[in-house]
Amino acid sequence: MTKHYRPRLIAVIALSFLSFTSPLLLTRNAAAARVDEPTANPKEIASLIEKLKTNDKRELSAAIKKLGKIGEPAIPALMKALQDKNLPVRRSAAQVLAKIGPPAIPDLAQALNNPNADVRSSAAYALGGIGAEAQTALPQLVFLLQDSNPDVRSSAAEALGGIGAEAQTALPQLVPLLKDSNADVRSRAAEALGGIGAEAQTALPQLVPLLQDSNADVRSSAALALGRIGAEAQTALPQLVSLLQDSNADVRSSAASALGSLGAEAKTALPQLVPLLKDSNADVRSRAAEALGGIGAEAQTALPQLVPLLQDSNADVRSSAALALGRIGAEAQTALPQLVSLLQDSNADVRSSAASALGSLGAEAKTVLPQLVSLLKDSNPGVRSSVAEVFDSLGAEAKTVLPQLVSLLKNSNPGVNTNAAKALVSIALSLQGKANTLAPTELNLAVSNLESALKIMEEPKANFQKSKIAYLRLSLNVLKAEQTDRLFVKSIIRKPYFWGTGIYLFLLFGTFAIRPLWLLKIYEKLKPIAFKIPVLGTDLSLGNLIFLKYHPRVLDAWVAAQIEATRDEFQKREIVRERKIIVPIPVILDNNTIATLKGKDLQPTFAQKRGCLLIWEEGGAGKTSLACLIGKWAMSDTPEERICNHRMLPVLIESELNMKVAECQQPFLEAIRGQLQDLTDTAEPICEELLEQLLKQRRILVIVDNFSEMSEQTQTAIRPEMPNFPVNALLVTSRLEEPLGLVTKTEIKPLRIAGNRLSSFMESYLSQRKKRDLFSDTEFFNACSQLSTIAGDRNITVLLAKLYADQIIAKKEGTTDGNLPNNIAELMLYYLNQLNCSVTENKFSDFTVQKDSKIIAWECLKPTYRPAAANRQNAIDALGEQNAESRLNYLEDKLKIIQTKGVAHDQIHFALEPVAEYLAALHLLDVNGKDESKWQYFLQVADSQNSPEAIKSFLLAVKDCYLDKILGAKDTDFLSQEITSRYNVTIAVPPQSPQAV
């Protein structure tokens, strides 16, 4: 610790205490204040003000001290003294006002506007002395930087430096003063930049040239300022090095100090610094030594020149040299004899620095412990404190001096016994951490001495800090516990029946630490083996001995063993494979809009014991794509990308549950079990007990897709609000904002693509498909414009944007007839044509494909007006005519737009629900045309459905198709108005000509 650090620390602590207690003191009533501190007598204040004019330094110091104690009542008189013609009086008054502090700021700030330049200068000087708290006067001080009087400019700059980093806003006005014609102003401006510190680095280009100023004070101030700015000033290193040979001693001293502040970066200056160790000026030698200490271990080559300074005639030089050796570190241990001799130096700062340096030498310092112990009796408190810190750094290495430290606890000097107690506690804490490595004799000796120390410190008349006593007692208890443990170990060695238990626990925990997955395998082998316990009258499985079998570490090991197979199988899932390309879109997460959802956004949800996530929005919004992406995040090896702090296996439930399961089994649990077996590619299904633990401890993420389209029977089987619900990490996608039994859940709502974001979406999608280079910028712009025209004033879903992107790719690659859709209805038909185009054998016409697809789509939507599964035979019957079944198979096997579902494979559904809605709408147009009576019946059936929101997207698709495909269709038509009135939406007719149905 430097000789300046401890007084500063005491001052900081005192100021902190005063700042905390001052509001309480100010609120005390006047009577109490008069009791605690007598009100100052105006005559006494006047007398003290008069003494500011004395030439007697002792009398002047006493007057300043008394006025500072009087405080706020003396401010008016002091402000008047600021106007005195005598400069020393003004300076003394300013000094007192600075001591009084914040209460004087308003008056001082007002004095900055005084017409008298001397008053303005003195007021600025006082504000600088107050420091950071004077920042409220910054505007006035900044204004004074342009004062016509150089003394005022100088004082204002000095005040800004005193305020420190808070004055960084004044940099634009402060920097020009570096070129002021007055040398003192330039000097104070440079000092101010140093006071602001690192925040002033932007002024380096203007500050560095001052190192070559013709005025020595300016050069010195500039060098010191660069040192205070710190590492950012290393660009000025060459100029600082050149100043080491300046003719002015103050400049050389400041340059050396600045280089020391640059740290190891200044090692290139060693050749120029080392000669200064022999400079004729003591301050230069001192600063050069400090600079070597700042450079640190890199300065070890200067040890031969630095060590002799330990015998310099100047105490400051000896002190700086000792501190520098300490900062150089273990390499300076060759100077150990000389440092030891300094422990007896007549100067307290030197003794303190020598002790600190010895503490920095590490283990080598233990050889001089007796000499250090004797310094605990030093008359100087700084020396005693430094020695105590040495013991703190040595820790257990100082255990040999425990007896001497214990004896010092009874010393009559409070400083001696306090620092001895501090050293004892530091050693005790270090021994506590190394208790199991101590030899028996060392342990016993430490316990004995610390017991004696604790007894002394707990005596009623003793005045030791309670925290020190508590720390000492804690360390002593740990050491005693180690003694007891060693005795216990000796005792159990003589009792063999402990060995079996010890070996069992060793093997169990050893396996747990090294091969945790083996515990599950061992448990499966031991589980069938049982033995009877006579006392309980029941059988107990040997598997119960493996009580760590379902510890999170074991389950994580099981997941790790299955993760690669699961990743491969998950990617092969048709629903995942079809969503290989995912373009990020904005979502609403619990009422907060997020531009790009990431796994870490969901970590709070799945960090809970039971996490439930609902992704809901209309069809085609990207719900399933997002669910698949979250499933991938759950398996990620990167913790920041995962949705939980551990990896999870995603199990996707997208079909109706098979309710025909064995008695006492849950259909939902059996579905998860079957999917997990398929995912992990194992021959046997996972045991129910392990599955329940994996679900309970959130090692499996269950994804239920299209929940709103599932049957009531299936929905009833998935009830997260039930106490016995097995899944603690659940993700549900739905077209509706499902209540899910009102459980606590996180909700995600994918947003449609806004018109002004269509181009960026298309850019990203085409780039991911590696098709962007197919289009020139003009072609790309035209395609985006056409999509915007189709969308009109609406935002569109991700699916529609992707279908359109696929169309323009197909057109560019020549796999379509070359036309692009003009509206959403056409987009769906073009999509069918594109799929049909890829068929090479036994191909049906586009007309047949479109007609059949529309019929099947209506069969899927007809019962509930929602995309759902339709009976396969009913669909075949609806197709009618010849080869109906082969046409249905064509849609499923060749085009893959429909899929077979159900346990009996007797259900079909559309792979893309929004496509089904538009195709069904087109079918209705084929049937109903503009017949208002038919549409009335259609709307009556729609109104009879239980959930208007669930069928909203279908009705809007009907309205879209009506306006797009019916000749002369208008928003004011019966059908358009009826749908608009139900959902309060407006869909404008696209600008192209309508086409006949």
| Distance between the first and last residues' Cα | 92 Å
Low-confidence stretches: 1-38, 987-997
Report the sheet-strand fraction: 5-15%
Strand count, sense and barrel status of the largest sheet are: 7 strands, mixed
Count of runs of 4 or more consecutive helical residues: 48
Portion in helices:
55-70%
Gross morphology is extended
- Counted beta strands: 12
| Helix and strand composition category | mainly alpha
Summary tags:
single chain; 997 residues; 7-stranded mixed beta sheet; 48 helices; 57% helix; disordered N terminus; disordered C terminus
Tell me what you see in this structure:
The chain is mainly alpha-helical. The protein has a 7-stranded mixed beta sheet, sandwiched between helices. Strands 10-12-11 form a 3-stranded antiparallel beta sheet. The chain has a two-stranded antiparallel ribbon with strand order 1-2. A hairpin with a 2-residue loop joins strand 3 and strand 4. It is extended, with a radius of gyration of 43 Å. Mean pLDDT is 83; it is low at 1-38 and 987-997.
